[in-house]
Predict the structure.
Amino acid sequence: MRYVVSTVLALSLLAPLTIGRAQTLEGAIDMHAHAAPDGTPRKLDVLDLARTAKAAGMRAIVIKNHYEPTASLAFVVRKAVPGIEVFGGISLDLTVGGVNPAAVEWMTKVEGGFGKIVWLPTFDSESQVKLTGDKRPFAPVTRDGKILPEVLAVIALAAKHDLVLETGHSAPQESLLIIAEAKRQGVKHVLVTHAMASPGGSMTLDQMREAAKLGALLELVHAPLTDEQLRKEADAIRTIGAASFVLSSDLGQPQNPLHTDGLLALYKGLMAQGISAADIDAMSRENPARLLGLQP
């Protein structure tokens, strides 16, 4: 009886701490943060982003750029703003040659080893270009339902160097093919980029369930932060389980909130839809920490 009482007491003491953490950014990780310098306007630069995140108590940020690798930028930001983990990656859009294994291999050699993410094509993805009706070149990842050889090579590099492979703005069915192949090749960490708000086509609940079953994590982001979207996201979390989700900002656009404000709004919005503080903690801290090779 003494053991039962002690356990109940411990849980009662832990609950307010968990709720409090879920309503702050203490220890949080943003896997998807845009900042200047960039070829498009951004709300703040990478140094101010790191300082802002550090001041809010965040543990880590990943600098995302659609058109330039950010591993070397992460190295510099870490030196300028110690006390927060900063990571970068490479988005395989046309400015780096599209799906270019040589560019990925070189990123892994950048001093510090902070280039941890490979995004498959985003703004230059075939799916996004065709969905938007643009008449411009794109970087395909599949043809006739089969993964292209250069994508297979990138997947092999992600397995070799323990990189996080993200699906970018691929079509949902393409993403499922890629996830299955990545797991077959031994990639430990696959993340579906903004699974429910993708310009390349958002996943259905069944597709997200399949992605999670294959072993991928699913990213949810700030926009669009509407009641309808939050309800859909909360339903997906309840159905699939918080262990399969990551909460990121995807912020940095001048018209949108700061990354820190947007993340808090996302956390609180999901909690208002009935998602528990413990689940917010898992999705904002524990799951992204595992992706980046940090202790949860």
About this structure: The first helix runs from residue 2 to 22.
